[in-house]
Amino acid sequence: MSIKKQFIKSKPVCKVTFSVEAKEATNASVVGDFNNWSVEDGVLNKLKNGTFKGVFELAKDASYEFKYVIDGEYVNDNEADSLKWNEFAGTQNGVLEV
């Protein structure tokens, strides 16, 4: 799993690329505060090498909780900026700082 951040000088956004290696998986999404935890809005595209990848424009100077959903299973990114306990979910979520 990896996260790449590209700040855009002309806009108050950051292009964030989420990548997940999941060769055996059928589908993967990234869900979080930035897309109302919507699996449909966070769909990642599967590449020929088995990696799922997607680019999202997120507002700068913000912090977002997020997780991946890989074949219906919620997974944290080990490269998240930090982890945060979420009372509603009863588990930790990854945190992305942009």
Query: Biggest sheet, open or closed, and with what strands and sense?
Result: 5 strands, antiparallel
Overall helicity: under 10%
Determine the number of helices (DSSP H or I, runs of at least 4 residues).
Answer: 0
Structural class, from secondary structure content? mainly beta
The gist of it:
With 98 residues, the chain is mainly β. It is 0% helix and 55% strand.
Question: Could you describe the 3D structure shown?
Answer:
This protein is mostly beta strands and 98 residues long. The protein is 0% helix and 55% strand. The protein is built from no helices and nine strands. The strands form two sheets. Strands 3, 6, 7, 8 and 9 form a five-stranded antiparallel β-sheet that branches. The two termini are 18 Å apart. 21% of the residues are buried. The mean pLDDT is 95.
Provide keyphrases for this structure.
98 residues; mainly beta; five-stranded antiparallel β-sheet; four-stranded antiparallel β-sheet; globular
Set out the fold topology.
Elements (H helix, E strand, L loop, with lengths): L1 E6 L5 E9 L6 E5 L12 E2 L4 E9 L3 E8 L2 E3 L6 E5 L4 E7 L1
Antiparallel strand pairs: 1-2, 2-5, 3-6, 4-5, 6-7, 6-9, 8-9
